[in-house]
């Protein structure tokens, strides 16, 4: 073999060894698989995760707020039902006490707040308005005869300040301002009904628990509040001063009927005026402030 041939053989052998070495060396490497992601894509991905997390947190907070709101609303509804039940209980208790002339000491202490709210929140005024509307509806369907013998009997004391007529039961529970406000409201609605009846041509007879010696003061007060044009004002005589007020009203109704008058209706805020015999007429009982129902039998105050 020539020198050139030997040289070629050596070069071939060297290349073969080199290839073999590379092959052996390459066997030392392993192929790793994965997802390639650029830094921008990674940033977008992480931002998306943060957004989803924030949204979930906001959703949880909203649900918590909604649940709390529903709970508060349900609590308010339950409290309203409790207030309604308590009002009904106290109102019926007051009616029972009024019918039986019970003292305020028989009332449950829990009804104190109800008595205050009854005036301050306007329910007393609404009750008065309803009662007056019922009376007005009745008188819109009947007309007095021309013989002037059909009369309407009204409690004159409903036009006076209640603090001089009541036994102050309610004053022991609520402030004086609220009590005086209720008195003024009653006077306004009693006067409204009085003027309505007068405009309808009804002869009006007023009856009071006050003694006869206060007649001049009573007439002056009635005129000052616009109550004029009545047919008669009946007051207690000296012999009736110690008489029970219910008996006084019953006695005067009987006397009027014996004189030939036909009582079409009796109107009063007090139970003593709408109880007893000779009650063939229509009765309109004006509501009173809760627990303020008991009238003094002997009223001799000159402060009207």
UniProtKB/TrEMBL annotation:
Keywords assigned by UniProt, alphabetized: Membrane, Transmembrane, Transmembrane helix
Biased composition (Polar residues): 13-25
InterPro entries with a match to the protein in the record: Acid_phosphat_B-like (IPR005519), HAD_sf (IPR023214)
Regions that span the bilayer: 35-65
Region of interest (Disordered), residue spans: 1-25
Protein name: Acid phosphatase (Class B)
